[in-house]
Amino acid sequence: MKIARYTAYGGPETIAFQDAPIPTPGVGEVLIRIRAAPVTAGDARMRSGRVPRGLGMMLRLVIGLTRPRVAPGWAFAGEVAALGAGVTSFAPGQRVFGLTGFKGGAHGEYRVVKADGPLLPLPETLGFEEGAAFFFGGLTAAYFLIDRAGLTAGHRLLVAGATGSVGSAALQIGRHLGATVSATASPANHPLARSLGATEVTDYRKGPPPGPYDVILDVMGALGWPGALPLLAPGGRLALVTADLGQMLGSALRPRRDGRRFLTGTNPDTLAAMRRLLALHQAGGYTPVLGPVLPFAALAKAHAIADSFHKPGNLVVVMQPDG
Ligand SMILES: NC(=O)c1ccc[n+]([C@@H]2O[C@H](COP(=O)([O-])OP(=O)(O)OC[C@H]3O[C@@H](n4cnc5c(N)ncnc54)[C@H](OP(=O)(O)O)[C@@H]3O)[C@@H](O)[C@H]2O)c1
């Protein structure tokens, strides 16, 4: 089978493919034939080492000083190819989707995962490409909007940077929860933002729609506290999805400012969070937006697109097309 690896921190040219034997599932494990996998902003950051200010050394201490020592690929959709001993919760041929998380390895044609890990049956309502696109932005948006900001019906929500992976999920979840949703996006993406639930959209280069807002989801951290403060209602919450070290420390040490709250964090990749997102999908509140779909062989090109932070929706590579 083919599997991708990173040869160094750097541009998309640092991605290489290698041949490896198809692994055998052990006790309690499942062999997945991967059909599609997302190429996310997180993949682009791990490969390039380009992270918000102050976090570069931390990233290198965790994933490798001289090159990323993780296997590329954070999530997948595919089929069960084989079962290890003792696995009864999945069946051969079953369509599934799941996370490899920080260990990676989803940018390959096969991957062994734990049966009781972050793995779920893929519902009939999702194809492999949508299944691959399902978790990255969706889990992040649900975590910040529901768990951190406590978004509820009647709230006024601004999603700044609203049509990428996180933003396109946040618009849908915000609307589903009964918030009034405003957005910023580049002009070409305004129709997409409106179709996902935004009632008002402006170009972020010109400034956001006037508030006040109960919750602001600042996807790229472009507003920051100074930009968000004048837009926040009393008691309002700013969720910075992209935050540098100073902002992370600030939100931990001084989370309340002028009666408003400032949130940063990283969403947990748990089975419970995955199930909640699936329940949102089944209730009509979330379906991942598919952007570019490329063959696995074009993984470097996919990384170049992800590097831009301007992709619409989710970017997916297809390992094995249908049929
Ligand atoms: N904290 C966490 O746990 C967590 C989890 C996931 C992702 N993230 C971070 O969240 C960020 C977004 O991830 P993503 O997957 O949604 O990325 P993405 O799919 O590349 O989308 C980026 C979005 O940001 C918009 N944008 C770009 N520059 C902007 C600016 N200056 N002002 C306002 N909006 C701007 C883009 O809009 P246009 O395309 O319209 O230009 C696009 O909608 C990344 O920095 C990622 O590392 C954090």
Task: Summarize the structure in words.
This protein has 323 residues and is of the alpha/beta class. Helix content is 28%, strand content 27%. The strands form three sheets. Strands 3, 4, 5, 6, 7, 15 and 16 form a seven-stranded mixed beta sheet that branches. It has a seven-stranded mixed beta sheet with strand order 10-9-8-11-12-14-13. Strands 1-2 form a two-stranded antiparallel sheet. Strand 13 and strand 14 form a beta hairpin. The protein is globular and about 55 Å long. The model has no long low-confidence stretch (mean pLDDT 96). The structure holds NADP nicotinamide-adenine-dinucleotide phosphate (NAP). NADP nicotinamide-adenine-dinucleotide phosphate (NAP) binds next to helix 1, helix 4 and helix 5. The site of NADP nicotinamide-adenine-dinucleotide phosphate has 29 residues, from helix 1, helix 4 and helix 5.
